[in-house]
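ESCALATION

Customer reports they have been waiting on this structure for their group meeting. Please prioritize. Original submission:
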Amino acid sequence: MSLIDISIYERFQKLRSELKEYFKEREEVVDGALTALLSRHHILLIGPPGTAKTNLAETLCKSIAGIKYFFHLLTKFTTDKDLLVSEVMVEEEMQQQGKLIKFINRSEKKLPQSHIAFLDEIFKCSAVTLNALLRLINERKCTINPGEELDSPLITMIGASNELPGKEQEELMALNDRFLLRYIIDYLKLL
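Update from on-call: job pushed to the front of the queue and completed.
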């Protein structure tokens, strides 16, 4: 190993140790989250409220310098525009037939521009909205304006939920399958 490799390795091990020290009884989940980051895969955290799912994701993201982090608490009213579009710009263009008005979606500080995304209560959102994210999750590409393909720097998506989708939510299975790493988190045993 070169000196640079040792420095990166040591910093990684220090972060790993600090996270494991802070998140008691979450050692396996910490290793899984770090593995997801290193391997560019997605991780799903399932557990009841109060089991540190959100805290773990936020602490991990804030521990890495230069990372653009996106967080959204999903509800049944969340749309794909809430996740992908930050604002709509109006552009006017003069043409022979008259004035052409275009509405252009911008994605600054939204999911397509993030390195790590955390979608809390991921299965509370509509299947239509979540399935619109499949290409972004799989290929790190999305379209927010017709004919404009956007490459995303997305490394890892962290999803969290209190439960897995049930049989009545079969349409969410495509999204559910995108999470290679899955952890069931329960309340702490030691207090």
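Sent to customer with the following note: The mean pLDDT is 85.
Escalation resolved.
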